[in-house]
Structure formats: structure tokens, C-alpha cells
């Protein structure tokens, strides 16, 4: 399947497709661990769209046969967003994307950082399987849980 993947920087032309994918992920995946109230607010408030617009210039896309199926957004050594179309969960797409991008980032920085919601068990498991280590937690009343801080060292 990876023969059909391509990776490239996001452009302004991708904004609409990226926003649509972000809404799909929030609606079909994030809802499973953050619940209806939080996800409905995130989508309906415009914050979902705004997050994509703010990170557009720092985003890299994973495409399958020219369709955007993944988005990775960085600010220096901080992974601010990592999304894979729920239809492609479990296909190796996320692993392929990480295998291409993470080594490039580790060549620039001694360590990488991200935060993840504690109820995102699938995400946390994926990160830990790939060598990320938890180094902190912060209670978040909005999500009725914790933000988990993870880092990956060279």
C-alpha cells in the first residue's frame, strides 16, 4: 500500500480539504474519547477550522493516490497535530508517515515533544510503541481528564 503514498508540504490550496479531514477526524474519532459536548463545541465554534488555518504553513500531508489522508503539524520540535483519516486507521498509514517525518525532525532537534489526551488510548499506545516517553500530566477540566506530555529523544 505504501507504493501509493506521497508526502508533501501543505499549501493554501489544501486548506479546504484539510479542514474537511479535520472535521471528519474530530467527528468520527476524537468524539470517541472526548465526548459529544467537547467535540460539538470544537467543530461548531470554528476552532477546528481555525487550528488548521493557523498550522497550515507548518503542516505536512500524507496522500494516498493524491487524496489527503493525513496531516502532521509542527512548531519547531513540538508536534502540534497528527491526524490520520479514521478510514485508514490500522492500515500502516500513520506508521509510514511517522517513519518518513520523525527521523528528519530528530536530525534537527535532540528531542521532540507532543501532548495527547489521556483518553486517547490508541494514540498513546501508538506513540509509546514508537519510543515516545511520558514526562508529565496536566489536569484539564474541559475534557474531564488529563493532557499527557510525551517526548522522543535521539
TrEMBL record:
SUPFAM superfamilies with a match to the protein in the record: Acyl-CoA N-acyltransferases (Nat)
InterPro entries: Acyl_CoA_acyltransferase (IPR016181), GNAT_dom (IPR000182)
Positions of the N-acetyltransferase domain: 5-153
Keyword entries, A-Z: Ribonucleoprotein, Ribosomal protein
MF annotations from Gene Ontology: acyltransferase activity, transferring groups other than amino-acyl groups
GO CC entries: ribosome
Gene3D superfamilies: 3.40.630.30
Protein name, per record: Ribosomal protein S18 acetylase RimI
Organism of origin: Proteiniclasticum ruminis
Organism classification: Bacteria, Bacillati, Bacillota, Clostridia, Eubacteriales
Amino acid at each position: 500500500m505504501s507504493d501509493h503514498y506521497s508526502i508533501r508540504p501543505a499549501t493554501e490550496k489544501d486548506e479546504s480539504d484539510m479542514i474537511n479531514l479535520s472535521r471528519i477526524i474530530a467527528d468520527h474519532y476524537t468524539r470517541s474519547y472526548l465526548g459529544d459536548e467537547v467535540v460539538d463545541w470544537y467543530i461548531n465554534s470554528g476552532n477546528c477550522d481555525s487550528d488548521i488555518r493557523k498550522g497550515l504553513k507548518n503542516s505536512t500531508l500524507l496522500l494516498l493516490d493524491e487524496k489527503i489522508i493525513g496531516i502532521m503539524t509542527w512548531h519547531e520540535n513540538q508536534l502540534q497535530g497528527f491526524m490520520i483519516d479514521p478510514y485508514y486507521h490500522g492500515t500502516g498509514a500513520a506508521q509510514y508517515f511517522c517513519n518518513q517525518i520523525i527521523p528528519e525532525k530528530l536530525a534537527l532537534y535532540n528531542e521532540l515533544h507532543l501532548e495527547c489526551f489521556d483518553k486517547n488510548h490508541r494514540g498513546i499506545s501508538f506513540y509509546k510503541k514508537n519510543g515516545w516517553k511520558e514526562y508529565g500530566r496536566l489536569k484539564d477540566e474541559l475534557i474531564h481528564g488529563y493532557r499527557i506530555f510525551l517526548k522522543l529523544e535521539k
